[in-house]
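Task 17 of the worksheet. Students: predict the tertiary structure of the chain below and write it out as structure tokens. Keep your answer in the requested format; marks are given for formatting as well as content.
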Amino acid sequence: MGIEKTKIWLEEHFDEPINICSRLVASSNKEDAVELYDYLVSFGMYQPNPTSREMFHQLKDEDSWSKVENIYMKYKVKWSGPDIPVYIFPMRRTRYSKIDHKSGVSFANKMFLFLTPLLDVRELEALIVHEYHHICRLKYLTKPYHEFTLLDSILMEGFAEYAVTKFCGKNYNAKWTSYYNDEELEYFWEKYLMKNLRAKKTEPIHDAILFGKGRFPDLMGYAAGYQIINLLSKKKTFTFRETFTIKEDEVMKVLDSLF
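Model answer:
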């Protein structure tokens, strides 16, 4: 596994992303490929147009695939992590691209990275650290996907960005880590988060709070997760390896004493 040959796929089917996604689904049903593509687009995957095509050519010129492979292998060895496929695509221009120049999404058995050219190699490392931490933590969480709660998700994001702080430095943390101050996050915790922590991933309120949709502040769940793990690190001694295995109930014991 490791870095998949998406460079070749893009050369052959750049204008047919559904065709590309059909390689990534278990069935031959086109609707499954369309559903996956729509999901990936929501996290930053390119849409075919002259701008994204030029980005692809620049990513090739910068040998982005080799850069990703070097960083991925570094952390796979350092963390004794799973061997999973990594898919690299150009990033589409979204509201997030005004702030960040990269994005990603991970499943238990695969990672997707959406990149722009001229990306600082340390920013690239921060993205991979964040996403690969998800992979490593998911390895130890035996809960079925549909049983994941909002608490599971915000801790997942918090621990992943804690890893970025540790291995890349605070200068490379995602911008959402500083969207809100402690007082604002405490208010969000009491008003929105605390009563919805057990909301399942399949419930609309889960994503609404995590990503900050509708009436909820932008990426509120992500920002709260990072604050929670920072608070946890001050109250509970744990090794970095334990960030893959600490359960939500252990975190809640500490949180109950803080709020």
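Marker's comment: Residues 95-99 have pLDDT under 50 and may be disordered. The longest helix spans residues 121-140.
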